[in-house]
């Protein structure tokens, strides 16, 4: 694509330092190929395209290209850019674009401020989220209910239970009822608080019980603006289900608080509370959706109970519901906990089964599993080798950290230097390391 062809030129950094472009012998056609776009409409399309392709790290490059071309951005431009930073979890770029916007006399609207607050929480910077609320007052932008819910969940992400309680009190005093995302935020704040409160289990159950009151009064908090921007409520409030919120059949959105609670139990390996939640869910006449099934598997497997983790997987597969690749990857990753012979055997068998049913690893899934498998220091390394082979067969290059861990794991084993696998991995590792360059951040 033309919009990506300009990023590989080695002359770009020097030209940027000069603040202009100059191509001595370039024809008009060659010049066009080196640009992302030619006008405002095209640049706005480029920003949306980069976000859709998950190439968020190129947004600033494209924006600088736009500035060099003398194209003036508008409100829609910055809306697309700030949304892209949310999808890519790039807080530094988000503040850069917000500052650029203000310097051009364009004030962010309340929806953009909400996204900035959420991004602060996503990046574990709740203090900056509070500061954004003050910035809104300075620019006379009135916060909405959504704003306070974004702030609540941003503080929850860093375990600031005191701030979360304060926001809840303020909302209640203002006559605002708490909906499922507020209760999910309370659960998340409790899970992230350090040290973990002794009453974690009882409080989680209490929050889930109290959240049932929202059903008669709670409605969607989405605005037409959010819908237009393609932001789901789960993304806006930084729910643990955010990455699945665009996929049909994955979530029962009536179980939002249960999602947060089961996710917390899995993270903390608290089987006792998780099983209490399963009983509560059954008493409510609800069945676990796919996200909850994954958390139940994670909780059992990471707690060392491989048998019940496998049983949960098998029960789902026998239920007649459509399987997804995440079921396999969750079982594989969980079975590798502790790198026991039994767990590694189950992990390898699951990968073989997954491949036979034509489920494929995405670059991120494969990289995460390879990184985990590469940590096996005593086994035969067959799981890591198989994950590498699955990705290599589809011409997928894992992320640098995963390749580095796998390469170092191979080097620790007695493998001849002329071994084809070792040579291939070594070349891939060196290429990725050289591409990053000295001091270049890991993407």
Automatic annotation (TrEMBL):
NCBIfam families the record matches: PPR
Cellular component, GO annotation: mitochondrion
Organism the protein comes from: Pyrus ussuriensis x Pyrus communis
Annotated PPR repeat ranges: 109-143, 144-178
The entry's keywords: Repeat
Record-given protein name: Pentatricopeptide repeat-containing protein
UniProt keyword Repeat present: yes
Region (Disordered): 418-443
Location of the PROP1-like PPR domain: 62-180
């Amino acid at each position: 694509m033309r919009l990506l062809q300009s990023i590989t030129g080695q002359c770009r950094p020097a030209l940027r330092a000069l603040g202009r472009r100059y191509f001595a012998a370039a024809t008009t056609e060659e010049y066009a190929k080196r640009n992302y776009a030619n006008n405002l409409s095209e640049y706005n399309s480029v920003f949306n395209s980069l976000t859709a392709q998950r190439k968020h790290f190129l947004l600033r490059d494209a924006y600088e290209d736009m500035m060099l071309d003398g194209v003036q951005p508008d409100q829609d431009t910055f809306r697309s850019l700030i949304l892209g930073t949310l999808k890519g979890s790039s807080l530094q770029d988000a503040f850069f674009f917000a500052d650029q916007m203000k310097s051009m006399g364009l004030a962010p609207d309340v929806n953009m401020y909400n996204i900035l607050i959420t991004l602060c929480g996503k990046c574990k910077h709740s203090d900056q989220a509070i500061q954004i609320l003050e910035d809104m007052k300075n620019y006379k932008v009135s916060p909405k209910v959504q704003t306070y819910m974004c702030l609540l969940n941003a503080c929850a992400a860093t375990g600031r239970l005191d701030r979360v309680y304060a926001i809840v009190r303020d909302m209640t005093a203002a006559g605002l009822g708490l909906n499922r995302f507020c209760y999910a935020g309370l659960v998340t704040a409790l899970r992230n608080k350090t040290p973990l409160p002794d009453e974690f289990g009882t409080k989680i159950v209490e929050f889930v019980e109290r959240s049932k009151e929202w059903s008669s009064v709670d409605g969607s908090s989405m605005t037409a603006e959010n819908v237009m921007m393609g932001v789901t409520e789960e993304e806006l409030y930084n729910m643990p289900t955010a990455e699945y919120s665009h996929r049909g059949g994955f979530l029962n959105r009536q179980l939002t608080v249960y999602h947060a609670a089961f996710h917390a139990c899995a993270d903390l390996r608290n089987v006792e509370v998780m099983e209490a939640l399963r009983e509560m869910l059954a008493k409510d006449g609800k069945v676990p959706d796919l996200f909850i099934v994954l958390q139940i598997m994670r909780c059992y497997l990471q707690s060392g109970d491989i048998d019940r983790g496998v049983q949960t997987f098998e029960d789902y597969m026998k239920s007649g519901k459509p399987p997804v690749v995440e079921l396999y990857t969750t079982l594989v990753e969980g079975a590798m906990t502790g790198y026991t012979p039994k767990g590694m055997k189950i992990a390898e068998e699951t990968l073989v089964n997954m491949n036979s049913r034509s489920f494929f690893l995405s670059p991120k899934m494969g990289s995460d599993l390879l990184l985990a498998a590469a940590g096996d220091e005593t086994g035969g390394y067959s799981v890591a080798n198989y994950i590498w082979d699955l990705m290599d067969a589809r011409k997928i290059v894992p992320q640098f950290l995963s390749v580095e861990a796998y390469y170092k794991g191979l080097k620790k084993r007695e493998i001849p230097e002329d071994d084809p696998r070792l040579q291939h991995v070594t070349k891939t590792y060196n290429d990725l390391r050289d591409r990053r360059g000295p001091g270049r951040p890991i993407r």
